[in-house]
Amino acid sequence: MTFTLYLSGEIHTDWREEIRRGAEAAELDVVFTSPVTDHPASDAAGDHLGRTEEPFWRDHQSAKVNAIRTRTLIEQADLVVVRFGDKYKQWNAAFDAGYCAALGKPYVTLHDADIIHPLKEVDAAAQAWCTTTEQVVEILRYVLRG
């Protein structure tokens, strides 16, 4: 069984690669998808729609273009991993988790214990809370192999 995993959230560390390497080492049949992780490219996603005077409208245009990719890939995923890092607040990741919850799409969160409280509602709707990428890979192993 091929399993599609959408990797949402933090873009400043190599956690996506850690999960990919772990799944490959475990010989799991997983297809990985994600948002655009090049920050300047993501911020410029709507620039072709026209110049704006206010930064809000540039962000607004780009958010809508990015949402086409994000929504489509979340809807196509079998499972979503939502990563919250400690360096920045990932409001977009929280939105992705909420979108998953609204769709009834299974998701797991990946974050350190020091942000349990601000993520309590996000974690409560998740199928699991992981603190390591190895735990994510173990979930994949169980789901795919039983």
List keywords for this structure.
Rossmann fold; alpha/beta; globular; 146 residues
Number of helices: 6
Note the gap between the termini: 12 Å
* Mean pLDDT over all positions: 96
Query: Helix-strand pattern, N to C?
Result: EHEHHEHEHEH
CA-atom Rg in angstroms: 16 Å
Shape: globular
Provide the structure class: alpha/beta
What fraction, in percent, of the residue positions are helical?
A: 40-55%
What's the number of extended β-strand segments?
A: 5
- Low-confidence segments, given as residue ranges, are none
| CATH level 1 class label | Alpha Beta
- β-sheet strand percentage: 15-25%
Topology:
Elements: E1 3-9, H1 15-25, E2 30-33, H2 39-43, H3 55-76, E3 79-83, H4 91-103, E4 107-110, H5 120-125, E5 128-130, H6 133-145
Parallel strand pairs: 1-2, 1-3, 3-4, 4-5
Helix pairs in contact: 1-6, 3-4
Can I get a quick summary?
The chain has 146 residues and is of the alpha/beta class.
Describe this structure in words.
By secondary structure, the chain is α/β, with parallel strands linked by helices. It has a single domain (3-145), classed as Rossmann fold (3-Layer(aba) Sandwich). Helix content is 48%, strand content 16%. It is built from six helices and five strands, in the order βαβααβαβαβα. It has helices at 15-25, 39-43, 55-76, 91-103, 120-125, 133-145; strands at 3-9, 30-33, 79-83, 107-110, 128-130. It has a five-stranded parallel sheet, with helices on both faces. Helix 1 (15-25) runs parallel beside helix 6 (133-145).
